[in-house]
C-alpha cells in the first residue's frame, strides 16, 4: 500500500472513479471508462445524462423546516457487532424478548389511559361552555352569550397555539405525514419527544374544546408514537432512565417496531378498532412487515381496547363529571344492530362515489389552504398565532350566529311536551326556540364531537372495523406528505424506471467518495468536513491487481473514532480486541455526528485509522446494469439506507465500486430532474 | 474467445471454480483458493465444513408424494423481457390493470356463490338424513335407524373417498399447508387445477354431510385458490381459454397475487370476515406484501360478503329447501348484541390459557395420528379407502349410540308443553325421549354444523372479525407443513445463522455449474441432462484478465432454445432482433422443461447458442462474507428463487462467482445437516 497518497489525486493504477478527498471540483468521468475500448461500446449508456441529480435534505416537520436524515434499519454487520452478538447469553436474548412484549403492553396501556383522559377533559370543558352559553341564550342575553362563547374559545385556542408555536413547532399539524415518513425510513427530528407529547395532549384538549373543526384522531396517533419513542429510550433528555436492559432498544430497527405499535394504538384509540390499528400499521410499513410484528401490534391495540372499556365502566356510574350515562352525550348508540338489505348496497355505493368526488374537491381546496397557511407561516411566530386566533374567532362566530338563521322545529309528539334536551340529558338543543320546539342546526353544531366520542366510547364488538372512516382518515394525508417535502418511497416503482439503470443513475451524481480500509486521519477529517454523507464505501487493495469493496462505514462511527483519538502510528491492521477494548456497542449506537469542536494536532493528522472493526462488510449491492425499478423494490423491501452499485465487469483496472445510491436518489421527482426526457417518454409513450 | 473449449476441462487462465460440464465427480475446491497466498488466510472459513449440504425435492402434496419446485417471483430482466416491456402501449397497461381487478372480482364472486351452494347442499342432505333417522328412532325402530344412518354416511363417505383417491389425490387433506407453501414460493404440482376444484366441492359436501368431524373452512380456502388459479390461466387443460389478454397473467407473480385473493376469499367465506381474509393473506405472504395487493384482496373478500348476503335474502323466504328461516338451523343468533364487562376478560383469558394447553395436547395427538395415517397411506389406494370408510363407520356408530347413554332432560316450562324441536323448526332434539323432554347429547351431536353455518350465514356487521377461530384455524397447520416436507421459509432466521457466511454455505454444496455467454450446444445439453437445476449462472470473459458474471439463465429458456434449434454456426453474439423474431414472450413463459424426446445431430451438437437474449443480467447478488441470517431476510423479502454469491476479492485470477443458493439451501434443517456443530452451539450457547 502506498504511504504518501495525497487527497484528491489518483495514482497510476489507482481504481478509476474512486479517489480520495472530497471530490469537489473533479470533472465527472465514466466510472468504467478506462476499462478498455473492447467493452466500452457495451457499456455506453442508452440515455443522455445531465449531471444534476440533486436532492434536498430539508422538509417541513410539523410547522418547522428541519434537516431530515434516513434511518438505519439494516443490520450493520461489522466486527464489533458480530462480537457483541456472539457474546450475548441466552438469558440476555430472553430479556430482550420479554422487554419487547412488555413495552408493547405499556404503549397500549398508556395510549389507552391518555386517550380516555383527553376525552374526559374535552367533554367536561366544552360541556361546561355549552351549558352556560345555552343558559344565556335562553335568558335572551344574546350579546353576553356571544362574548362568553367566543371568549371561552379564544382563550382555549390561545393556549393551544402558544404551546405549539413557542414550545414545540413540530407538534403543530396532524402528525400523520411525519409518522408515515418515519415508518418509511425518514428520521424526522424533534418529532416524538416529551415536549411534543405534552403539547399534543394539552393542545388537542384545548383545540377540540374550543370548537375548532378538527378531530382527535391525528393527535392520538401522534401521542401513541411519542409514548412509544419515549419508552424505547427510557424517557427524555435529562430524565432519561439509564437502565441496562434498554440498550437493546438503542437502534433504529427496534425503535421503529415500537413506534409502529404506538401509532397503531393511537389509531385503535381513535377508531376503537384494534384490527383497524393493525391494518394502519400494515399499510404504512407493509414492505418490511414481519409476522412477529403483527402479533405484537395486536397485543398493543387489544390493550388499548381493554383500557377504554375500563373507563366506560367507571364513567357509567356518573363519576366522570359531565361525561357518562347522564352526561351531555348519549353513547352506546351502536347497541342497535344495523340491518341492511342487498339493495341498500347500491345506494351505499352511490354515496361512496359522491363522497369520492367531494373528497377530490376537498383535496384540491386543502392543497390551496395549505399553500396559504405556508405563506403565513413564513412570516414568523406572531403570524402563526394570529392565524390560529383568527380562525378561532371566525369559527366561534359562525357556530353561534348560524343557528339563529334557521326556523325552529316542533318536537316529535312521541317525546311528550318537551324534547329531551334541557339540562344534562338528551341531545336536542332548544337554544333560542320556545318550549316544545328545537333548533336543528344548533343540535348539529353544538354537539361536543358526539361522533368522535361515540366512536371511542361505545361498547359494540371491539373487533368492529370502520373501513370508511379509516379510509377517509388516511387517504384525504398523501398530499400533505408530498407538500412537506418528506422523501416518502412509494411502494410501486414508476413505469419509466424500467428504462434506466442504476449505473446511469449513479453516474449522474457527484463522484462517490470512498475511504481506504486503513486511512489517514487527515483524509477522514477532510471528508467529514466537506461532505454531509452518512455512509462511506471502504475499498481495499491487498496487493496490486487485487481489489476489494470492503464495505460501508457510517459517519457516526468515524466521528466516534476521531473523538476517542483511536489513531495508529503506522499503517497496519489492528487485532480484534484492540477496538473492542475501546468502543462499547452502546457508544457506537450513539448517532452524534458533530465534529465542530474537534481539534487535532499536526502529528495526529499524519496518523492512521483502521476501519476494519467498524466497516459493515456486507452492505447490499446490486450490479450497475440493474434497472432502477428493480432496485427500488429491493431498497424498500429490505429497508435500506445505502445501496452500493457494483461494476458489471471485473478486472485489474476496474474499480470494485461504481457508486452509491440513497433514498433521495431513488425518488421519482429527483430522477426526473436529472433525466427530464424520461418524464416526456412516460407521457407520450 | 476460445473456439475449442472442451467440457469439464478448465483452460489456463480459466476462472477457478467455474468449469464447464456437469461437475459430477470433480473434487471440491476452495473457490478462491487459487487467488494467491497473500489473501488465503483472510478467507479461511471460521467453521469446519462437511461437504454434505443436500436437499430433497419431494414433499407430500395433499396425499400424494410429488416433485416440488420453487416459483419465480423475480422479474427476469433479460433482453426479450425488456423489449416486450418497452413495446407495451399505454392501452395494454390499462388492459392489464383492468384485468387484474376484474379477475379479483370474479374470484370473489365465484367463491361466494360456490360457498353458498355448498352450504345449501350440506344443510339439505344432512337435514334429510337427520329427519328420517329421528323419525325411525321415535318409532322405536332403533336397528333400522342405525343401519339407515350408518348406511347413508357410508355412501357419502365412499363417494368423497373414491373421488379423492382415484381422481385427485392432491385434493385430500385440508389444503392449507400447500397454500401456505405456495404463497411462500413453493410450486406444488396438480394442486390448484380443475379436478381438485371439482373433487373438493363434491368431496366436502359429502364428507361434511356424512357427519365426519371436519369443517368446511379448509376446503373453502382451497376452492378459492383453485378458482383463482383457473381464472388466471383461462381454464384448465383442453378447455383453456386462449384469450390474448390472459398472457399478462402467464407468470408466477401475477398468478400468486390472484391466488392470494382466492385464498382470502375462501377464508372470508368460511369465517364471514373480509378483514379476517385479508389478515390471513397478510400473515401468509407478509414478507413480500404490497399495499396494492391489500386493496385488491379487500375487493375480493368484500365481493364474497355481498354474495353471501344475497343468498341469505333469497333463502329467508324458505326457497332453499331445509335451509332458511324455517329450516333446521336457526341463524341470525348474532343479532343479540354481546355485552361484557371488564371482569369477564379475566375469565376469557383463563379459557384462552386452558385452550392453549389443550391445543398443544391436540397438536401432539395430531402429530401421532398423521404418522399413523401416513403408514396406512403407504399401503396403496385400497388402504386409503378402507381407512376413510372405517373412520366413517366408527363416527356414525358413535354419533348414533352415544345419545342413548345419557338421561333425558325436561324441557324448560317457558317453552310450553314441548320443546321447539319437532319437525322443522327449533333445535332441541327429542330423539328417544318422551314428549316434554329432550336428549341434550343428541341436540349437540345431531346439529348440522350449526356453528360453521351460523358463521357463514348470520347477518351481523360484515366487518366482524373472529380472531379466536381464525387463530385456532391457522396456528395451532404449521406442524403439517413441516411433516409434509414442504420447504417453507420461516420469516425469522435462526440465531446461529449469524455465525455462518453464505460463502461457507455455498462451499458445502456440489460445484456450481455455469455456462459461457456463447456456449456449445453439446455442453448445454449435457448440463441439462445431468443436473436438475432450474437456473444456471452465465459468465463471460470478453478478453483475458477481464471477467464478468453476465447473469442467470433459466432451464426453461435453455430448453426452449434447444427445442427450436436456435443454433449458431460460429461463436458470435447475435443481434437483438434475431432472438425476438423467433421467441415470443408467451413461449418463454411456458415452463416446460422436458428434453426427453430431443434428438440432435452431431453437426448440431457442435454448434453454439447465444445466451445474451435470455440471460437475466441483474440477478440478486450478495458478497460471500454476508451472514446467512442477513441473506435469508433478503431472500424472503424480495421473494427470490436463486441468489448468486459474489467473491469478496476481485482480481484477474478470481472467478466472478462463488456459488449459487436456493430456497432448499437456506432451510435451517438442511444447513444443520451439513454443519452439525452449529446445532450444538445453539443449544449450549
TrEMBL record, chains A, B:
Main location class: membrane
Membrane topology: Multi-pass membrane protein
One family name in Pfam for this protein: Voltage_CLC
Top-level division of the source organism's lineage: Eukaryota
Keywords on record: CBS domain, Chloride, Chloride channel, Ion channel, Ion transport, Membrane, Repeat, Transmembrane, Transmembrane helix, Transport, Voltage-gated channel
Gene3D superfamilies: CBS-domain, Clc chloride channel
Name of this chain's protein: Chloride channel protein
Domain CBS stretches: 506-568
Keyword RNA-binding tagged: no
GO molecular function, one term: voltage-gated chloride channel activity
Transmembrane segments: 101-122, 143-168, 346-365, 385-406
Similarity section: Belongs to the chloride channel (TC 2.A.49) family.
Keyword hit for Transport: yes
Gene Ontology CC terms: chloride channel complex; plant-type vacuole membrane
Localization per Swiss-Prot or TrEMBL: Membrane
Region named Disordered: 1-38
Amino acid at each position: 500500500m502506498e504511504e504518501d497518497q495525497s487527497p484528491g489525486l489518483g495514482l497510476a493504477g489507482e481504481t478509476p472513479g474512486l479517489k480520495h478527498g472530497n471530490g469537489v471540483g473533479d470533472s465527472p468521468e465514466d466510472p468504467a471508462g478506462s476499462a478498455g475500448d473492447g467493452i466500452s461500446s457495451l457499456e455506453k449508456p442508452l440515455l443522455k445524462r445531465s449531471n444534476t441529480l440533486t436532492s434536498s435534505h430539508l422538509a417541513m416537520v410539523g410547522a418547522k423546516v428541519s434537516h431530515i436524515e434516513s434511518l438505519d434499519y439494516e443490520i450493520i454487520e461489522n466486527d464489533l457487532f458480530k462480537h457483541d452478538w456472539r457474546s450475548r447469553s441466552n438469558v440476555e436474548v430472553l430479556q430482550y424478548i420479554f422487554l419487547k412484549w412488555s413495552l408493547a403492553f405499556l404503549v397500549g396501556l398508556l395510549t389507552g389511559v391518555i386517550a380516555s383522559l383527553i376525552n374526559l377533559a374535552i367533554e367536561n370543558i366544552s360541556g361546561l361552555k355549552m351549558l352556560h352559553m345555552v343558559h344565556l341564550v335562553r335568558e335572551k342575553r344574546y350579546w353576553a352569550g356571544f362574548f362568553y362563547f367566543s371568549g371561552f374559545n379564544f382563550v382555549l385556542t390561545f393556549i393551544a397555539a402558544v404551546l405549539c408555536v413557542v414550545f414545540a413547532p413540530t407538534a403543530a399539524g396532524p402528525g400523520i405525514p411525519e409518522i408515515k415518513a418515519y415508518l418509511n425510513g425518514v428520521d424526522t427530528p424533534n418529532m416524538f419527544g416529551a415536549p411534543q407529547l405534552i403539547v399534543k395532549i394539552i393542545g388537542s384538549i384545548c383545540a377540540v374544546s374550543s370548537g375548532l373543526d378538527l378531530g382527535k384522531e391525528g393527535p392520538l396517533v401522534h401521542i401513541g408514537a411519542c409514548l412509544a419513542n419515549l419508552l424505547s429510550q427510557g424517557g427524555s433528555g435529562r430524565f432519561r432512565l439509564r437502565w441496562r436492559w434498554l440498550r437493546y432498544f438503542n437502534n433504529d430497527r427496534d425503535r421503529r417496531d415500537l413506534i409502529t405499535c404506538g401509532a397503531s394504538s393511537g389509531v385503535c384509540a381513535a377508531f376503537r378498532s384494534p384490527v383497524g390499528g393493525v391494518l394502519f400499521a400494515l399499510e404504512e410499513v407493509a414492505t418490511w412487515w414481519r409476522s412477529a410484528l403483527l402479533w405484537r401490534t395486536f397485543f398493543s391495540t387489544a390493550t388499548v381496547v381493554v383500557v377504554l372499556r375500563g373507563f366506560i365502566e367507571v364513567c357509567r356510574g356518573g363519576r366522570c363529571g359531565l361525561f357518562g350515562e347522564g352526561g351531555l352525550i348519549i353513547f352506546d348508540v351502536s347497541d342497535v344492530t344495523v340491518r341492511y338489505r342487498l339493495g341498500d348496497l347500491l345506494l351505499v355505493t352511490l354515496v361512496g362515489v359522491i363522497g369520492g368526488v367531494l373528497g377530490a374537491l376537498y383535496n384540491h381546496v386543502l392543497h390551496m389552504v395549505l399553500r396559504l397557511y405556508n405563506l403565513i407561516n413564513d412570516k414568523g411566530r406572531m403570524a402563526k398565532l394570529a392565524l390560529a386566533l383568527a380562525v378561532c374567532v371566525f369559527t366561534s362566530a359562525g357556530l353561534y350566529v348560524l343557528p339563529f338563521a334557521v326556523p325552529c322545529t316542533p318536537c316529535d309528539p312521541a317525546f311528550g311536551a318537551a324534547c329531551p334536551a334541557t339540562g344534562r340529558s338528551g341531545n336536542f338543543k332548544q337554544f333560542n326556540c320556545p318550549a316544545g320546539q328545537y333548533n336543528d342546526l344548533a343540535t348539529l353544531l353544538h354537539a361536543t364531537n358526539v361522533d368522535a366520542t361515540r366512536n371511542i366510547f361505545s361498547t359494540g364488538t371491539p373487533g368492529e372495523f370502520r373501513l370508511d372512516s379509516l379510509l377517509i382518515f388516511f387517504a384525504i394525508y398523501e398530499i400533505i406528505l408530498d407538500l412537506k417535502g418528506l422523501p416518502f418511497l412509494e411502494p410501486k416503482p414508476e413505469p419509466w424506471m424500467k428504462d434506466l439503470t442504476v449505473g446511469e443513475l449513479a453516474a449522474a451524481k457527484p463522484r462517490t467518495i470512498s475511504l481506504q480500509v486503513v486511512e489517514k486521519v487527515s483524509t477522514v477529517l477532510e471528508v467529514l468536513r466537506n461532505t454531509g454523507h452518512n455512509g462511506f464505501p471502504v475499498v481495499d487493495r491487498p496487493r496490486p491487481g487485487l481489489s476489494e469493496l470492503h464495505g460501508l462505514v457510517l459517519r457516526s462511527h468515524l466521528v466516534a473514532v476521531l473523538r476517542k483519538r483511536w489513531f495508529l502510528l503506522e499503517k497496519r491492521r489492528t487485532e480484534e480486541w484492540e477496538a473492542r477494548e475501546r468502543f462499547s456497542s452502546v457508544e457506537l449506537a450513539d448517532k452524534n455526528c458533530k465534529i465542530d469542536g474537534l481539534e487535532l494536532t499536526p502529528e495526529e493528522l499524519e496518523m492512521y485509522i483502521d476501519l476494519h472493526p467498524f466497516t459493515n462488510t456486507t452492505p447490499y449491492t446490486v450490479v450497475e446494469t440493474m434497472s432502477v425499478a428493480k432496485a427500488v423494490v429491493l431498497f424498500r423491501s429490505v429497508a435500506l439506507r445505502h445501496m452500493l452499485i457494483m461494476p458489471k465487469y471485473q478486472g485489474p483496472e476496474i474499480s470494485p465500486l461504481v457508486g452509491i445510491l440513497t433514498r433521495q436518489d431513488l425518488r421519482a421527482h429527483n430522477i426526473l430532474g436529472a433525466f427530464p426526457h424520461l418524464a416526456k417518454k412516460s407521457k407520450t409513450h
